[in-house]
Write a structure and sequence with these properties.
The chain is of the alpha+beta class and 264 residues long. It contains seven helices and eleven strands. The strands form three sheets. The protein has a five-stranded antiparallel beta sheet, with helices on both faces. Strands 7-8-6-9 form a four-stranded antiparallel beta sheet, covered by helices on one side. Strands 10-11 form a two-stranded antiparallel sheet.
């Protein structure tokens, strides 16, 4: 049987003992509580000391726990499946050892929020037709294929498929950058994710000052207004800022070296 430890979710400001409910990772209904040091707190739950598998259920529970805390506090998310042996280890190795670092990060993140955006092409058939008509080499090759018999075009179909894939990737990159450029200009920082879905033009996270959120919302709406029927947008209004702050703790090192904050 595994020993019990403390599963860590995020760091927040404050030194009061809090209970955020029975939403801990692991499916046991463990309560989310705080471990405090001066005016910092780590949000934790009881947990066996074990490596949690990266499953949708586990990662979503981890994220939902952080989102629960976010309703009341700015948060510094901690990497999934970070488990301390005890409250004392959290205080000494994490909160005390990295006190100034966390204070600076909380000051930086306090007036900002992460917003997520995915932009899809609405009608892939029309996009592919548009692409072929705009590319003379593909158009010409297509016309040549259409003149051949079915048993002559096997390798030609493979070749034109490669040509279309290459042109589609270039079109996706160019159009995606065009669409998100105005959003980047409104954000303090941004992170564009690699996409592998043919119809997904752009997937990005933006760190936006809260005072700029209404203007950012209007800029997102303008994408659909300026190109009616062309795009479908998935817009996540607020998420834990994991794309810009991700606290990583390595328990096998000295406290002053035992971390890696990835703000990009």
């Amino acid at each position: 049987m595994n020993r019990e430890g403390k599963y860590m979710y995020c760091v927040i400001e404050g030194n009061s003992v809090k209970n955020f409910g029975p939403v801990g990772v692991g499916g046991r209904g463990d309560e989310l509580t705080t471990v405090t040091y001066h005016d910092l707190s780590a949000v934790v739950s009881n947990s066996p000391i074990q490596e949690y598998r990266v499953t949708r259920e586990n990662t979503m529970t981890h994220q939902r726990a952080i989102e629960t805390v976010m309703k009341e506090y700015p948060v510094l998310p901690i990497r999934f499946s970070t488990i301390a042996e005890s409250e004392e280890e959290i205080i000494e190795r994490v909160l005390r050892g990295r006190y100034e670092e966390f204070q600076e990060l909380l000051d930086w993140i306090r007036d900002k929020k992460e917003l997520g955006l995915k932009i899809y092409w609405q009608d892939m058939k029309s996009i592919l037709n548009e692409l072929v008509e705009a590319d003379e080499s593909i158009k010409s090759f297509r016309d040549q294929i259409q003149k051949k018999s079915q048993n002559q075009i096997y390798y030609d179909q493979i070749e034109i498929g490669k040509m279309i894939e290459k042109a589609l990737n270039e079109k996706r990159e160019k159009e995606g950058e065009f669409l998100i450029k105005p959003l980047k200009e409104l954000a303090e920082d941004s992170k564009v994710h690699v996409t592998y879905i043919p119809e997904l033009i752009a997937s990005a996270a933006f760190l936006v000052k809260k005072t700029m959120e209404p203007e950012f919302d209007r800029a997102v709406n303008r994408i659909q207004e300026e190109f009616p029927g062309r795009h479908r947008i998935t817009y996540v209004g607020e998420a834990p800022p994991v794309n810009f702050v991700n606290i990583v703790i390595h328990w096998d090192r000295e406290s002053k070296e035992a971390h890696n904050v990835s703000p990009r």
